[in-house]
Amino acid sequence: MFKKNHLAPLLALLPVLLLSGCDSNMVVFEPKGPVAREILGLINWSLVFMLLIVVVVFGLFGYIVWKYRARPDNKDYEPPEEHGSTKLEIIWTAIPILIVIALTIPTVNTIYKLEKVPEGYENKKPITINVTSADWKWIFSYPEQGIETVNYVNIPVGTPVKFKLTSAGTMQSFWVPALGGQKYTMNKMETQLYLVADHPGEYLGKNTNFNGKGYADMEFTVESKSQQAFDKWVKDVKKTAPKLTEKKYIDLLKPTHLGRLTFSNNHLAWVNHGDMNSKTYTFPELYRNHDYPGQIFKQPDNQKNKAGKTDDKSMDMNMKMDGHSNGGEHNGH
Amino acid sequence: MGIKWDRFFITGDPLILGSQIAILLTMIGIVVLVSYLKKWKWLWTEWLTTVDHKRIGIMYILVGVLMFFRGGIDGLLMKAQTATPDGQLLDAQHYNEVFTTHGVVMILFMAMPFLIGIMNVIVPLQIGARDVAFPQLNALSFWLTFSGAMLFNISFVIGGSPDAGWTAYFPLAGKEFSPGIGNNFYAVAIQIAGIGTLMTGINFIVTILKMRAKGMTLMKMPMFSWTSFVTSIIIAASFPILTVALALMTFDRIFGTHFFTLSGGGMDMMWVNLFWLWGHPEVYIVVLPAFGMFSEVISTFSRKTLFGYKSMVGSIVGIAILSMLVWVHHFFTMGAGPGVNSIFSITTMMIAIPTGVKMFNWLFTMRKGRIQFTTAMLWALAFVPCFLIGGITGVMLAMGAADYQYHNTLFLVAHFHYVLIPGVVFAVFAGLYYWWPKMFGHMLNEKLGKLHFWLFVIGFNMTFMPMFFLGLNGAVRRAYTYSAESGFGPLMLVSAIGAGILAIGFAFFCYNIYWSARYADRNISSDPWDARTLEWATASPVQFYNFAKIPEVTSLDAFWYMKKKNKGLKFSNDELEEIHMPSNSGLPFIMSIVFGISGFLLVFEWKIAALVAALGILICLAIRSFDYNDGYHVPVDEIKEIEYGWQNKEKGVEKHVN
Amino acid sequence: MDGKTKKKEWKNMSTNVNTSLPLEFQTEQNRMNILGFWMFLGAEIVLFATLFATYSVLSTRYAGGPTPHELYDIKGVMIETILLLTSSFTCGIAIYEMHRHNKKGLLTWLIITLLLGLGFVGMEISEFIHYVHEGATMQTSAFLSSFFVLLGTHGLHVSMGIGWATMVIIQILKRGLTPVTARKTFIIGLYWHFLDVVWIFIFTFVYLKGLV
């Protein structure tokens, strides 16, 4: 029943795997900043161990399958009774434990490092950029510069950037693979991500967390410029770009595809979606599909219920906290 | 309550119109065929009302094959759409529906029915039982799974498919961003199937704890029964979480509550946590029985007992415990903080330890053996290298910081296909080629089987290997298209061609089933592989009472030693006793239909109608409570006749492996 | 299975009845059913644990709606608690009477249990109606969504238990105290005690914690 050629294709998998670490055209393997470089170091460290495991197990597998295959001439061979070997089993429990430890230490180390300003840049004052994802666009607000861009973001080279991530609606993920790892953006939540570009250039950023029809097009560009060029750009924007109004901003949040936009002010003046009690903007009617239309629910408007009972103490507190959350009128355009 | 009949059927897409016509014709065809052959009564008494674990298992497997077909078509559509940059086959909406149903169908309606089906057929036989502990409940489990699967599958022609991904993350899956009823199908259909699965878990825990043959202690139990046992425990521990999560989703979507919504203080992150609290154990629910099947196949065809049985048991228990403690690794990028991410990185990597132990135990089971390359064994052999790739990339993903670069890319997609296809699909094929004679009394054709094997394995590697590299180059999952400048084109094309080869491989499997059913030799041994466990100690196909006399077990690999010592195989006629068997019942089938109807009405948000239909469920439960039919007894004469029949036939039949 | 098989209706439960054990444990099928029910309760524990976790995550998200302080009426809740705790006690007495083979005592205490249970469900429904009149519905806020679903699930369990126990009472009346009816009663007892324990958790973690 056995034919030699049954095994050959299995062994042919080996070179494919060996190639895995060597292709240098892939964006993750071409870091353009210290954060991505840090992660790449960790990936390369793990690849060494993985390659080792693959070589050992594939080798052992090939050897055993080849050596102990059934042949016409070993027809009468009766395999031995063998229930296990404590020694061997301890060995192959211990080795994975050692490998896991070898991987754990740098992993934990890197996880903690990525939460801080990258090494070597601690002395540079970071700039803050608020990132707001909406369907299906990226909005970047510069609180220090007082400007806002859509679907592109300019950063000064060599300066740590503190991205404050939030979302106006669905859960999305902010990722600039050339500069570093990704993080989710969520409504009424704020996550943070430090990135640095140490070369000037343009890098592609994208959303990796599926969020509906326009998901595939949710890309943006990060352009890292010299400090002078960046400052000049900010000045130009301040001078020439149009102003963003609240009404226009609400239009911006509706599910659309947009090109690049630039504004000489930013939306943080009236809403920060990262705030736990910020206003909710939803437009369910604009998401209708070919499926059977279901019921849409109004957002609860609890302030109205309470209007008559102002003497309640805990209620006053709620009023203050939820001052902006009376968003019912934006429901269902 | 205005019913919008014009929106009832999905219109406007030629692919969907074609499917609607095809479904209608198939249904008419089935009704006509069954009527023409006058098989309605046979269908009802032999299949729809059966409580026989073997028949229920076979029906599960049939559902698995059908759903593999459905999920496979979805997969092929995705691959065809992304084969070239800026593909035009599907639009974004259609693509989103297709990958959502692909995921749900493959995990819940393909992998689960296949594995639970094989568990159903084999576990009672392996432990020397006459049936499961609660046969009627078992039938209900199957029919609920079936009902859920059907409800989910009609969504794309009636009402609209769910389109928020198989993970259905909120707020996207909520009414604020998906106002149609598509995602109601997700919430309700999976709920119905999930209740069935939960009851299967409870049923098998009791079966394995209480119904083992005399002398079979837990540590003498075959490995597949062990993995089924541990899987059942994980089911009982994790499916209630899914039940709650889906119920809350239903409340949010149909009754306007605020569990996961943006407004009203809901918390979308809670859905993610609840989903993966079930979702990660679910991976082990499907993978562990597969490990058990590989253990049986490798041991049989190496003609050696399993190496390190005790450490195998230890590692599956270890995996089961760890499986509950790793769910956060699905969302390291949610910003839970470095402490949390570190802890879950470590627990996740720890899973590699017991899995590594299993890997080496399998290799050393083969060492010093005499390895026979049957089709079943080929699947087990291909599993080792392919699953290893899935495993090591899993460790890479487990490293929290590195995951920030892999997360939600095609690297991740490649990883979990490398785990689930070798870990589940290869195992199911290995199990089917191995146990087919036990189920049907004939073998599957080995030549066609090998064709199936090579096409499938090569196609699989071609489809998913390129995805690792695409992911590292920044290709994200679930994107319906990409630009030519991205440079993803060539590898995407390779991947699409691979998917075609894989599909041809599966077609050969279907053809093999047909060919073998028509032409395969019926005159085969009840033990064609010279196997080791109790299911081979009885007839093929197995007589309805399984064992005329329950064998007594003295060691692991019970049947092997019975053969070797020539002890316990034969019994004299006066040892036979009447056998008590459960009666058939139509109640599980009817109750599941009622469940399906009620679910359908709920999907369309016709709440009062759904409630009225749900009263039918309560009525069925009440009928069951008053049902005092305790089955019937098979007289000794009949047993004698049946036993004489198959044992006599055995003489002069050759074993198939040598 | 097929027509050739001569089917004989089997009236008694099983051939090997071990009379030295309590009635509900006397047959193998009974022992399996009871073990199976324990497994089911294990799954129920996970189910309620998930609901409690959900509640604890959302319990402070009022979204401008009413808070527990404004809402909860401790007097009604105390009465509900006493009703359910007493019913658990009477249920225990019913099982004790069953073990003494006292059919009349069993039925009496079982019916008292159910009446107390009905009282509990009635109180809970009127509590919910009161909340809704206050403007606190499931749709008001995340806190109230999780509150109503957690308590509603428990209340639905109690209601199902009442219906189920009623059917068992009818069966006892019709068939007397057999291993089968004894097993069913015993399982109802387990279920009832379980719901009582869940209520103690609700009382502590929802009502008391909400009022502190």
Automatic annotation (TrEMBL), chain A:
Transmembrane portions of the chain: 40-66, 87-108
Cell compartments where the protein resides: Cell membrane
The EC number(s) this enzyme carries: 1.10.3.-
Record keywords: Cell membrane, Copper, Electron transport, Membrane, Metal-binding, Oxidoreductase, Respiratory chain, Signal, Transmembrane, Transmembrane helix, Transport
Cross-referenced Gene3D superfamilies: 1.10.287.90, Cupredoxins - blue copper proteins (2.60.40.420)
SUPFAM superfamilies cross-referenced by the UniProt entry: Cupredoxins (SSF49503), Cytochrome c oxidase subunit II-like, transmembrane region (SSF81464)
Source organism superkingdom: Bacteria
Pfam family, one: COX2
Gene Ontology molecular function: oxidoreductase activity
CDD domains in the cross-refs: CuRO_UO_II (cd04212)
Organism: Neobacillus rhizosphaerae
Purpose: Catalyzes quinol oxidation with the concomitant reduction of oxygen to water. Subunit II transfers the electrons from a quinol to the binuclear center of the catalytic subunit I. Subunits I and II form the functional core of the enzyme complex. Electrons originating in cytochrome c are transferred via heme a and Cu(A) to the binuclear center formed by heme a3 and Cu(B).
InterPro entries, per the entry: CcO_II, CcO_II-like_C, Cupredoxin, CuRO_UO_II, Cyt_c_oxidase_su2, Cyt_c_oxidase_su2_TM_dom, Cyt_c_oxidase_su2_TM_sf, Cyt_o_ubiquinol_oxidase_su2
UniProt keyword DNA damage present: no
Catalytic activity: 2 a quinol + O2 = 2 a quinone + 2 H2O
Membrane topology: Multi-pass membrane protein
Domain Cytochrome oxidase subunit II copper A binding: 124-236
Spans annotated as Disordered: 293-333
Principal location listed in the UniProt entry: membrane
Residue stretches making up the Cytochrome oxidase subunit II transmembrane region profile domain: 20-118
Name of the coding gene: qoxA
Entry protein name: Quinol oxidase subunit 2
Keyword Signal attached: yes
Compositional bias ranges of the Basic and acidic residues kind: 301-323
Family, as annotated: Belongs to the cytochrome c oxidase subunit 2 family.
Automatic annotation (TrEMBL), chain B:
Domain Cytochrome oxidase subunit I profile: start-end pairs: 36-554
Transmembrane parts of this sequence: 15-37, 58-78, 98-125, 137-158, 185-209, 229-251, 271-294, 306-330, 342-364, 376-402, 414-436, 448-471, 491-514, 586-602, 608-626
Cofactor field: Cu cation; ferriheme a
Single GO term (MF): oxidoreductase activity
Metabolic or biological pathway: Energy metabolism; oxidative phosphorylation
Compartments where located: Cell membrane
Cofactor binding, note field: Binds a copper B center. Heme A3.
Reaction catalysis annotation: 2 a quinol + O2 = 2 a quinone + 2 H2O
Tree of life domain: Bacteria
Major site of localization recorded for this protein: membrane
Record's keyword terms, sorted: Cell membrane, Copper, Electron transport, Heme, Hydrogen ion transport, Ion transport, Iron, Membrane, Metal-binding, Oxidoreductase, Respiratory chain, Transmembrane, Transmembrane helix, Transport
Membrane topology classification: Multi-pass membrane protein
Name of the top EC class for this enzyme: oxidoreductase
E.C. numbers: 1.10.3.-
InterPro entries reported in the protein's UniProt record: Cyt_c_oxase-like_su1_dom, Cyt_c_oxase-like_su1_sf, Cyt_C_Oxase_1, Cyt_c_Oxase_su1_BS, QoxB
PANTHER family: CYTOCHROME BO(3) UBIQUINOL OXIDASE SUBUNIT 1, CYTOCHROME C OXIDASE SUBUNIT 1
Functional note: Catalyzes quinol oxidation with the concomitant reduction of oxygen to water.
Homology family: Belongs to the heme-copper respiratory oxidase family.
Name this protein carries in UniProt: Quinol oxidase subunit 1
Protein's gene: qoxB
From TrEMBL, chain C:
TM segment ranges: 35-57, 77-96, 105-123, 143-173, 185-208
Superkingdom as given in the UniProt entry: Bacteria
Domain Heme-copper oxidase subunit III family profile positions: 35-211
Coiled coil: none
Location in the cell: Cell membrane
Catalytic activity: 2 a quinol + O2 = 2 a quinone + 2 H2O
GO MF term set: oxidoreductase activity
Keyword tRNA-binding: no
This enzyme's EC code(s): 1.10.3.-
Primary location class: membrane
Topology in membrane: Multi-pass membrane protein
Record keywords: Cell membrane, Membrane, Oxidoreductase, Transmembrane, Transmembrane helix
Family: Belongs to the cytochrome c oxidase subunit 3 family.
Function, in words: Catalyzes quinol oxidation with the concomitant reduction of oxygen to water.
NCBIfam families cross-referenced by the UniProt entry: QoxC
Protein known as: Quinol oxidase subunit 3
Gene: qoxC
